[in-house]
What does this fold into?
Amino acid sequence: MRVRRVLAATDLSTGAGLAVRRAARLAAVHDARLTVLSVIPPSLAEEHSDFVAGALDDHVAAHAGIPADVVLRTGPVSDTILAEAADLPADLLVLGAHGSRGLAGSRTGPTTENITHASVCPVLVVRTPATDYETVLLAVDDTEPAHRAAQFGVALTPSAVHVLAHVSVVIGEQLLRLRGLDETDIERLREASTAEIRPRIEELAARLDPRPHAVVIGSGTPQRALPELVSHYAADLVVIGSGSSTRFERALLGSVAQSVLRYAPSDVLVVRGGTR
It folds into this structure.
């Protein structure tokens, strides 16, 4: 999987400057073409477009450090960014986290979440300085699209230490408690679920090139467990990938990715199952 075109979207903020720096660093490592995009809402375009154009040039000069195509568009912010990514087409879309605009306790703003949810190409949400990634957590299920997502993450960060992680879900765990199962019975179900999935996750790990340095398989709630694993391994990037073939799986992927986006302290790369 080769990264040929990187698109960084910026609102000229400090957080977006981190995203431009990260996009430029990855573009340089992969010998990819870099485009930096800023979008002016239609209500502001007539009065502020000249000012924003000059500020955008200064912003790119300050943060990119490599040649870049600089693009200024007018339109709805999320839709315009998604359209630009599709038109290029971009192999990677890089955004700032914009945590100050999010919900209480959230590290990610609504525009970033909306774009990440709707994007066809992989989206990298940046909140850390643009040094080389050292430890990458690859969060997967046991599907072929998840393998492709993990491989994209590995290919994007070839020099990092990679930890493959799967958190098994005991479907209806709370309902089982309500029906009288005690914690010992629940734990047995978790162990059985983990034992069943382990061979498939280890087989997925064996097919990655390079192979991950560690494979972690546990049970519990992915929305809670994955941010905890990010902190435990001091990962500076977490990659979320899933096959999401059923409505339930799509909803679960969405909720897990959203939770990691909001609460993980690292950068987050979301790769959909259909990524080329």
